[in-house]
Amino acid sequence: MTESNSYHIPDQDKTIIASGYHKNFRQDEYAFGEIISDIDYGRRIREGDRLLNVRYIVESILHENCDVILYKCRDFFTDSIVVIKAIGPWLRENEKEGIIKHFGDIRNLVHPNIATFLTLEKNDAAHEYFLIREYIEGEDLESLLRHSENERLPIPETVRLLRQVAEALDYAHDRGVLHRAVRCSNIIVTSNGDAKLIDFLFGENELGTQPDQSTYPPCFKEKDHDEMNRKWEYKSPEQWDRMLALSDLDIFECTDEEWTAADAKGKTTPATDEYSLAVVAYRCLAGHTPFGNAQGFREIGKKTLNDAIPRIKSLSRASNAVLAKALSKKPEDRYASCQEFMENLETALKPGGLSRWWQNARRMMSFFG
Fold this sequence. Notes:
Blueprint (H helix, E strand, L loop, with lengths): L13 E4 L4 E4 L24 E2 L4 E9 L4 E7 L5 E7 L5 H14 L10 E7 L4 E7 L3 E3 H6 L8 H20 L12 E4 L4 E3 L28 H7 L4 H11 L8 H8 L6 H17 L10 H10 L10 H10 L11 H12 L3 H15 L2
């Protein structure tokens, strides 16, 4: 074992990671495996630092924005590469309990197009949870699109990747698990060219409200909100019902009854993930999301709830009709599954797909009289 992989503690003051920030302490105060309760917000985590009882060595920061930071780390025990993501302290206690339950569900998902989630660690000092999953060599779909011509993918590539995502989502749905945060940045295109879904539920502030910036470290407060806007663009109408209702409440002053009533709005179902997958498909085919021109939380929400889906002029009437159905305001008006949506989209996008699509539509209409 090399010294760089050992737990050697130098004589000077030591540093352990309690959260995303350092706590400096003296040698005689050190206890192996202890999590320090008095967090020092003096500086950010950097390469070479250690997380969670010094087990995980930070190799790099993969991604950061105003509400999340992802670390690429080496697991000292297994010598494997993992991704660690902090789930912030702004969540209410019942939502933290929901995270624990939901993690137990997603950890049991075994599918070639779903990332493997390894463990969930609690940091009592910072009131945070750390989600640890496998590291996937590749690039997220959002980054891939931004480096593509006109921010679009070729139709065959779009269909191939999103059929894999649809299979993964239906697999999860069959086991009672919803994703609820399907978007381009949560789809990794691996070095082998396959799609992998990441960040079930954990990809955002699950309060459904605009995040409370007072809980953020000072270094994040000046970040712009372009990325936050892009996340909201993938939300379904039923999610927006809940999000807008909750955003009207003061989370510190509202009663439990008010919160419960708002929280009960917009029940999510497998059709919720289908809607978000259809937004991903629209993004790949059009170069933008349906309401990508909207600015800010409320405008995106209102357009999603009230406005018709703009046609993609470069696509056929059949292709636009398939997208419009999957993007219906009412969940019951969408396709029965994600794979059914993608099968119809693939048919409509093929040369001659218009006539085949209408033939299928006629059969359905005749079947129902």
